[in-house]
Amino acid sequence: MTSSTEVTMAEADWQARAKHRKRRINLVVGTLFAIGLVSGFLVGFFEDEQAGLVAANSIPPWLAVASAILFVVATTLGSWKLTQVSDEHERTIHTKTTLLAGNVLLIGYPTWFILWKGGIVSEPDAMWLFLAGFGISIVAYGWYKLR
Questions:
Q1: Which DSSP category does 122 fall into?
Q2: How far apart are CA 31 and CA 19, in angstroms?
Q3: All residues at 6 or more sequence positions from 51 whose CB lies less than 8 Å from its CB, including other chains
Q4: What is the pLDDT, as a whole number, of residue 9?
Q5: Which DSSP letter does residue 124 get?
Q6: Which of 82, 110, 123, 136 has a CA positioned 20 to 30 A from the CA of residue 28?
Q7: Residue 97, exposed/middle/buried by CB under 10 A (0-12, 13-18, 19+)?
Q8: Whole-prediction pTM
Q9: CA 2, 8, 13: angle at the middle one, nearest 5?
Q10: pLDDT tens digits, one per residue of 47-79
């Protein structure tokens, strides 16, 4: 039989581990947010004011290359680190969310492309495909997290 002191200590240990895991998750997400914030600030600072919001050649090439490299490295390492600090339930949610967003792109582009080849729709636009994938990932995450 366990005493109430042992139960209280075990519960306190579990709570401490959960708090520590949450702190590590927040550190990873906060670091990724800060990297994105700095990158976005630099893009906004160096962007040509006469160019449109999504115009080509509106930032210096060095900044485009640096931002692209930073994005790939931060996304890759950030995803890996989040996998390390998240529990199984959270990893399952992220896996399902990524799968749905990837399917939007994997199914959406070829469908749009073939309809464009038939002259039914305008040429596929990467921005709309990106926004669709991003939007689906937000909705899917909310759905899996809250249900």
A1: P
A2: 18
A3: 57, 58
A4: 67
A5: P
A6: 136
A7: buried
A8: 0.72
A9: 115
A10: 888 877 677 888 899 999 999 999 999 999 998
